[in-house]
Design brief:
Layout: H1 2-32, H2 34-37, E1 41-42, E2 45-46, H3 47-85
Antiparallel strand pairs: 1-2
Helix pairs in contact: 1-3
C-alpha cells in the first residue's frame, strides 16, 4: 500500500514538472525570445504575436486538459492498487 502511494506521488510530481516546464516555455520563453520568433509566421502573423494573442492561452487550456486526463488515470490505477492490497 505504501509503495502504491509512493508510485502515485512520483507520477504526479513528474507530470506536474513536465507540464509546468511546458507552461514556462510557452509563457516566458515566447516573450523572452519574441524578436527571434517574429521571423517565423503562422497564418501570416509573427509567431510571437500569435503566442501572445492566442497560443499561450490555448496551450494553458491544453495543459489543464492533459493534467485532468492523466490524473484521472493515475487515480484509477492507485485505487485498484489499494483495493487489491486491502
Amino acid at each position: 500500500m505504501i509503495a502504491a502511494r509512493a508510485r502515485h506521488w512520483r507520477q504526479t510530481r513528474r507530470l506536474t514538472v513536465v507540464l509546468m516546464a511546458l507552461w514556462l516555455a510557452t509563457g516566458f520563453c515566447t516573450v523572452y525570445f519574441a524578436r527571434e520568433l517574429a521571423n517565423i509566421t503562422v497564418f501570416g502573423w509573427p509567431l510571437s504575436f500569435y503566442m501572445a494573442a492566442q497560443g499561450a492561452a490555448l496551450v494553458c487550456l491544453a495543459i489543464i486538459g492533459v493534467y485532468a486526463w492523466r490524473m484521472r488515470q493515475f487515480d484509477r490505477l492507485y485505487r485498484h492498487a489499494l483495493e487489491s492490497g486491502a
